[in-house]
């Protein structure tokens, strides 16, 4: 059994997945816009290029997502994506890349459980916890 996070976006799924792929050296293995599916008629013309489904592979893990249909997006709440980096430098690099244009909830710092831990919400509204150790 696998549990894969499935993220909802308000029109920025492609941009978010491209950032995540670059940041984490992952690969987008599947991405389909609304306009290339039978569901195309259910969204307005300016939404045809938005993403109905995307899959990103990150070091053996799968992250999936989509742009919610117009008027149906809800900001994420009640969870965070938790990412464990190989070392403190990598944790800080991930944090800085994801924090750009977002909101820092807790700067990267040493805690009693990790040499580096920080929390943020990226510019796409996705909450993250970044740590190492």
Describe the structure.
This protein is of the alpha/beta class. The chain has two domains: 62 residues, Signal recognition particle alu RNA binding heterodimer, srp9/1 (2-Layer Sandwich); 52 residues, 2,3-Dihydroxybiphenyl 1,2-Dioxygenase, domain 1 (Roll). The chain contains two helices and eight strands; from the N terminus they run βαββββαβββ. Strands 1-4-3-2 form a four-stranded mixed beta sheet, with helices on one face. A hairpin with a 2-residue loop joins β3 and β4. The two termini are 26 Å apart.
Please name the defining characteristics of this protein.
133 residues; alpha/beta; Signal recognition particle alu RNA binding heterodimer, srp9/1; 2,3-Dihydroxybiphenyl 1,2-Dioxygenase, domain 1; 4-stranded mixed β-sheet; 2 helices
Describe the structure concisely for a colleague.
The chain has 133 residues and is of the alpha/beta class. The protein is 18% helix and 38% strand.
Count, helices: 2
Q: Would you identify the CATH architecture of the largest domain?
A: 2-Layer Sandwich
Question: Any idea what the radius of gyration is?
Answer: 16 Å
Strand content: 35-45%
The level-1 CATH class of the largest domain = Alpha Beta
Taking the alpha carbons of the first and last residues, their distance comes to 26 Å
Number of strands: 8
**Pairing-aware structural class of the strands and helices?**
alpha/beta
Q: For the report, how would you describe the main beta sheet?
A: 4 strands, mixed
What integer is the average pLDDT?
A: 96
Order of strands across the widest beta sheet?
A: 1-4-3-2
Q: What series of H and E elements makes up the topology?
A: EHEEEEHEEE
Uncertain stretches: none
Shape: elongated
Number of domains: 2
At the third CATH level, what is the topology name of the largest domain? Signal recognition particle alu RNA binding heterodimer, srp9/1
- Could you estimate the helical fraction of the residues in percent? 10-25%
